[in-house]
Amino acid sequence: MIERFYARLAESTARHSRPYERFHYAYLYILPGLLIYSVFVLLPIGNTVRYSLTEWTGFSAPTYVGLANYRRLFEDENFWNALGNNAFFVIFYTILPIMLGLFLTSLMTRSKLRGMVIFRTGLFIPQVMSAVVVGIIWRWMFDYRGPVNQFLTDVGLSSAVKPWLGDFVWAPYAAGLVGTWVEYGLCMVLFIAGVQSISEDLYEAAKVDGANAWHQFRYVTLPGLQQQMLVAFVLTFIAALRVFDLVFVLTRGGPGRKTEVVSMLIYEEAFEYHHAGYASAMAFVMTVIIVSVSATVFYLQSRQEGAENAS
Amino acid sequence: MRASRSQQLLTYGILTVFLFVAVMPFAGNLLTSLKGRTELSGGLFTLPESWLWSNYSDAWQGARFGDFFINSLVVVVPVVLVSLILSMLSGYAFGMMSFPGQNLLLLVIILGLMAPHEAVIISVWHLMDQLHLRNSYYALILPQIALSFSFGTFWMRAHFKGIPRDLVDAAVVDGCTTSPFSPRNVLWRILLPLSGPALMSLVVLIFMWTWNEFFLVLVLGDSAHRTLPVGLALLRGQYSSNVPVMAAASTIVSLPVLVLYFLFQRHFIQGIASGAVKG
């Protein structure tokens, strides 16, 4: 094993004929970061898998139980409920913002706009704000005495007034809409920039071929925005899968378990009920889901870049 | 391209409406933070009757947001500085050198870019407990450096890849070296002066992510080490139901990031739109 490594090392030295290419220095440059990364990220991920096979309170010695935690997870209706809520949030965090962004971008002119810096800066603000602050603000907006209900009363819809985030029917929609509000600006900014980089010739050619507005959108704009849609998708989809702070502040998962998401369940199981083994199993499943989504998109992106470089 | 006048108007109309929707809650929050509690029923966008700055001093002293602010600084500054140095070093190796195991190592580091905090938190909590570091600043600083390392390496790698190799070759001819121990090192002498904008982006992004971090601090920090977002979310007692004081506290929490954002918005948008999700 180690001989093979040295053989390859010597081989690469030979290949890099530049005399200064002491490439083993590369390891020295990576080492400090890799060390701290190993202790606080790599090792913990490995431990999470190990703990997930045990029954463990987090304090006592863990007892090995095999796959029992995963079997229990499979039958745990709270877990499925939480996963379902994450899926529900995908509608609000991902689908709605992307559709809205695409629709609005298609209505806009493709020429460069004056004052775009102001719009871009403003539309992007929700992305840089602490989710806790966003949550605190919207919790008040949706409060029973808050601005939303005040507005409804003012326009004569006082019958619609309700404690939005405490309502069994409406809380998931209200909490979801906050997600839409956070993500739509990101999608708009990405798509506007994308549309402006599509060559005007393509639109001209489409017009010559008799394409109407819908055809132009379908066959020129949409394919031209592929890269931006991929980025918007991965950012917003993962935001929906891992959301924690926003829900923690808005509803704490309530009323009942109506807005409880997987990350919330992991937090409670691990740090409130001290089921650290079971929580580890849940965390591992969540990690597998998220990593496979990002890895797929990462792969698609690099393939697309490769295709662009080749052409 | 010539756009028709009506389409121009429609475009500005749409942008203005959605700009308003994006900014309105923060503007409303700012106004609320200066009102008295009895004025709240008057509506979100009414001006305060008398500008009640005392809401801010109540938040800063009474609700301890001054303490949380200091905790935030004590955590964020070392995380940003150390992450910056570590990422620059490893980004240099990945972007400018080729060595056996490069792709495998890169893949291992990508993992940290994708994995959610939940993947590490239980184990990190236990580790900190064993090291007797739980409820200390170290418990908040060390894991966040490790979690920023993946994005930082990626960011700096992409930057260094964009710098022409000829530049490095020429520098070597002039007597520079890639050795990390030499004062005539290529990284310090040649590359660092060219890396200002890339490093600036990294600084503001890691600052924002660390300043806003909630989950890790919630789990690993006790009330003496709470940073601003956790302090805000867990506020209990007389001020937690006082909407204007909560609004003032929200402004305190978001102001530093907002100021940076307005100064460096291009760096923020480029970084987030690069599509890399930080772990």
Description:
The complex is a heterodimer of chains A (about 300) and B (about 280). In chain A, about 75% of the residues lie in helices and about 0% in strands. With about 300 residues, chain A is mainly α. Chain A has a single domain, classed as MetI-like fold, CATH 1.10.3720. A two-stranded antiparallel sheet of chain A has the order 1-2. Chain A starts with a helix and ends with a helix. Chain B has about 280 residues and is mainly α. The relative contact order of chain B is 0.15. Classes of the chains: A mainly alpha (about 300), B mainly alpha (about 280). The interface between A and B is large, with 108 and 105 residues.
Helical content of chain B stands at 55-70%
Mean pLDDT of chain A: 88
Instruction: Please state the CA-atom Rg of chain A, rounded to the nearest Å.
Output: 25 Å
Main structural class of chain A = mainly alpha
Task: Indicate the CATH class of chain A.
Answer: Mainly Alpha
Q: How many beta-strand runs of chain B?
A: 0
Q: What's the tally of helices of chain A?
A: 14
Strand fraction of chain B = under 5%
Most extensive interface: pair and counts? A-B, 108 and 105 residues
Number of strands of chain A: 2
* Spans where pLDDT lies below 50 across 5 or more residues of chain B: none
Q: What is the SS-derived class of chain B?
A: mainly alpha
- Record the strand order, biggest sheet of chain A: 1-2
